[in-house]
Amino acid sequence: MIRVLLVDDQPLVRSGFRALLDLEDDIEAVAEAGDGAEGLALAREHLPDVVLIDIRMPVMDGIEATRRIAADPALSRVHVVVLTNYGMDEYVFHALRAGAAGFLVKDIVPDDFLHAVRVAARGDALLAPSITRKLIDRYVTQPLPGDPGTGLEELTNREREAVALVAQGLSNDQIAARMVISSLTAKTHVNRAMTKLHARDRAQLVVLAYESGLVTPRSP
């Protein structure tokens, strides 16, 4: 059973998402919160598989709540997905850097929403190649301030190559084709790189690749 925590300051939004989740046999909405502070407390209480959290909320916003969840060892298996009305805005990028596994726009169709919850619960980042490319485009034109990434010296040459391809927006299958290896081996390279770089998911790998200088942004 996939356990989901809903965090949004709009009760109507929470009830809408909960109604969709309650129709599924393999998903359970375990709790709801109206702000980030309450959401953080409920995450520690319920240890959900997925936290769906709005970015802009009173008391504590979704970015700070995401940062605290990502930093808490007790919540290492919790996957945060941020909710936004605005698509790829600056808040989404800050949330991804804070440790979110991906994002969803609130007007997503129900089938895609449910698929996204299952993807997040598996530990896969909610960043399809097309979305990753949008992330890259925005990062190139408006880079976020931050300290350079560290740990690249621990990567093998093949792992560095795989990370660079992730940062280009390629899926595991596309990475496998480019590197002439199996999809499983490509996934292994990516997962080992995430472990060595202490990245929670592919979203953070993309940011780390640019901030560390492994990949150099091209002029848009």
From TrEMBL:
<feature type="modified residue" description="4-aspartylphosphate">
    <location>
        <position position="54"/>
    </location>
</feature>
<dbReference type="Pfam" id="PF00072">
    <property type="entry name" value="Response_reg"/>
</dbReference>
<dbReference type="GO" id="GO:0003677">
    <property type="term" value="F:DNA binding"/>
</dbReference>
<dbReference type="GO" id="GO:0000160">
    <property type="term" value="P:phosphorelay signal transduction system"/>
</dbReference>
<feature type="domain" description="Response regulatory">
    <location>
        <begin position="3"/>
        <end position="121"/>
    </location>
</feature>
<dbReference type="InterPro" id="IPR058245">
    <property type="entry name" value="NreC/VraR/RcsB-like_REC"/>
</dbReference>
<feature type="domain" description="HTH luxR-type">
    <location>
        <begin position="148"/>
        <end position="213"/>
    </location>
</feature>
<dbReference type="InterPro" id="IPR001789">
    <property type="entry name" value="Sig_transdc_resp-reg_receiver"/>
</dbReference>
<keyword id="KW-0597">Phosphoprotein</keyword>
<keyword id="KW-0238">DNA-binding</keyword>
<dbReference type="InterPro" id="IPR000792">
    <property type="entry name" value="Tscrpt_reg_LuxR_C"/>
</dbReference>
<dbReference type="InterPro" id="IPR016032">
    <property type="entry name" value="Sig_transdc_resp-reg_C-effctor"/>
</dbReference>
<keyword id="KW-0805">Transcription regulation</keyword>
<dbReference type="GO" id="GO:0006355">
    <property type="term" value="P:regulation of DNA-templated transcription"/>
</dbReference>
<protein>
    <submittedName>
        <fullName>DNA-binding response regulator</fullName>
    </submittedName>
</protein>
<dbReference type="Pfam" id="PF00196">
    <property type="entry name" value="GerE"/>
</dbReference>
<dbReference type="InterPro" id="IPR011006">
    <property type="entry name" value="CheY-like_superfamily"/>
</dbReference>
<dbReference type="InterPro" id="IPR039420">
    <property type="entry name" value="WalR-like"/>
</dbReference>
<keyword id="KW-0804">Transcription</keyword>
